[in-house]
Amino acid sequence: MQTADLRIALFTGNYNYVRDGANQALNRLVGYLLSQGASVRVYAPTVAEPAFPPTGDLVSIRSIPFPGRSEYRFPLRIQRSVRADCAAFAPNVVHVASPDVSAHHAVSWARKRQLPILASVHTRFETYPRYYNMAWGEPIIEAILRRFYRRCDALVAPSESMAQVLREQRMNYDISIWSRGVDRETFHPGRRDNAWRQALGIADDVVTIGFLGRLVMEKGLDVFSDTIDELTRRNVRHKVLVIGDGPARGWLEARLPDAAFAGFQTGADLGRAVASMDVLFNPSVTETFGNVTLETMACRLPVVAAAATGSQSLVDDGVSGRLIPPGAVHQFAEALRAYIEQPQLRLAHGAAGEARSGEFSWDRINQTVADTYLRLIRQKRAGSRRGQE
Known about the structure:
The protein has 389 residues and is α/β, with parallel strands linked by helices. It has helices spanning 21-35, 80-89, 101-112, 138-150, 160-168, 194-199, 221-233, 249-255, 267-275, 291-298, 329-341, 343-357, 362-388; strands spanning 7-11, 39-44, 57-60, 63-66, 69-75, 93-96, 117-120, 154-157, 175-177, 208-212, 239-243, 260-263, 279-282, 303-306, 321-324.
């Protein structure tokens, strides 16, 4: 059996209605699979005006706005018409990319038909409650996730550090790596544009600390702003550049009134914005990989990040950036000050990061997922034969 023989039914809670790192990876995966001759059918919530066109065939599943976060959709039980569509498509493997209601039903549908099931892990959902004063809910969410992932045949995680967390949480015993790639045409040092920086009020001789990502509290915006306050108290000259948008933008603008906000960027504009920073500060602990970290490294810039899943597999502490204990504001500030006051250190660590980013090729990475599909199909068929003997 070859990649071209694959027929994949992909269920996800967000394929294209709001742009994020997870659905960018899924769309790239589908594009690669289609280019190799595989058949893919995607089942996900849809909206009238999505953030970008979907790659491949997209079938809408029922959903409602997520309470308190209406830009997101909460998938519901997959309706009869979707089950009929999936049966007519006749997949030989099912891929679930978010542990929501529709995915639970998709797993049950696949298990009843003895189809292999692969789950991809894209974010640490169990950490979200701590950003909304509901940390008590983390063990409950972890237990729900464990039940879901154990009903799947295998998991793929975007980094070894995340895979290790999943093993420690006993989510599954078959966990492999589906890493992430970087678009070297979009992200490279040559994208830097001092005139663009100047238009945002950033002087050429001021070291710029960048934040890159969706502006939501679970990205560590409180730690980011507290650290910037600490630098200001220490009289360390700097400028903050925020790249991205989201429901917490107003909060962050009020919290950091002197920062430059570039808003949502994409394509070449995003590459220009990232390359025009001097150092990335990523305090988030929710990422399973850290696409923004890799994109920044490709632009020859150092990274100061929380020592958490994702960044730990990308940043070599003291070589291409700094890994700091989550929430350690004073240590974050000290690491940033070193890069601000020591340009040679900034250049050396940026060069090391760029070299490391060269190891991430999208085609090679996505073929590992195709190989996992093929392995699971072989294992399922071998198990069925043994059961008939």
